[in-house]
Amino acid sequence: xxxxxxxxxxxxxxxxxxxxxxxxxxxxxxxxxxxxxxxxxxxxxxxxxxxxxxxxxxxxxxxxxxxxxxxxxxxxxxxxxxxxxxxxxxxxxxxxxxxxxxxxxxxxxxxxxxxxxxxxxxxxxxxxxxxxxxxxxxxxxxxxxxxxxxxxxxxxx
Length: 157
Known about the structure:
By secondary structure, the protein is mainly α. It has helices at residues 5-27, 42-64, 77-100, 102-118, 124-143.
């Protein structure tokens, strides 16, 4: 088991580098059609390069660290439960993307995640979810003209 922050950062950096390389390899397989404003592979390529840069920076920073080893405080049972519920929320989000559409699924995911993880007032989760859904709708779908599943909103747009 990884016991120090340095070893965790080294392992996470390697994981991020491998994930970025796989993302870049997969994104270069995406084909576009003539007349598109933004090529469909643009955002995956940008994301891949950003994850690669972050992974390399994390790995190099951990490799060069010379201070005292810092022990990792692993989550207790309650923290582990929060991690598992967050993963379950992501799985449900992915399952709802096609039937409900990207904006509605995002609204529900952010609302549920904010409520569960943040324990804010009742209106904060729906507000964050609504803002996130509108950002997804207008930035990615209207401004960048990406084709994301609309689901329930298909009859409107």
